[in-house]
Amino acid sequence: MEVIDTIVIPNTEVESKETVVSSVDTDKNKAEFLWTLQATWHLVKTRLGMDQAFDQPVCKKKKLWELVAEKVNAKLLESGLTDISVKAYECDLKWRNMLATYRKNTERAKRLGVTSVHWEFFKAMHEVLGKSREEIEAQRQAKLSGTSVGKVIANKRFTPILPTPPATAAVCPARPPQDVLQLYLELQERKLNMWAQQKALEERKIDAINNLAQAIASLAQINSAQTSKDGH
């Protein structure tokens, strides 16, 4: 039986055991945290238990992952398995890898059935992550049905908001051939006028340069004559 286990790196083949991929350049003098099976289970249970907090529209993921790391370290300290604490970014990266593996196994379960998946974390993750939005909404409505808030919502009639129909673009009437020809001739005439203006401007520049050159030559002659006169 095949077990799918995917790591978030390009061109990765399916493996039977999950590998930790680190994209952060850590200090090599410090010992690296090794994800044992029990440590991984602590991470899975802690992260799934905080899934609603992570799903909030406005939340600071960094603070949540620091809390996850704190809880995992507490569990490991109670078990006495390691004296190396796991960092928040290591929990985040490990969870991303596990999510990629979970999604691959979910696709396999859709094609071949749940019995074809033997990844040890799939069942626990699927019980939380596999719920559709309809199931989550149904559970929420069931919890509210016995409360006063739920009764108010159930008795309130809502006016459905219909989608706004897309605005149709105004169809421009087709121009007759005479108008198109006239427009073309006007554009050509504008181009010719612009070209004539540009040509006149270039001619003025040339005249200005020639006048400047003549003035410099005249000044040089005057200076030369003055120098010769002073020498005599």
UniProtKB/TrEMBL annotation:
It comes from the Eukaryota. One of its GO terms (molecular function) is DNA binding. Keywords: DNA-binding. It comes from Iconisemion striatum. Residues 35-128 form the Myb/SANT-like DNA-binding domain. InterPro entries: Myb_DNA-bind_4. This is Myb/SANT-like DNA-binding domain.
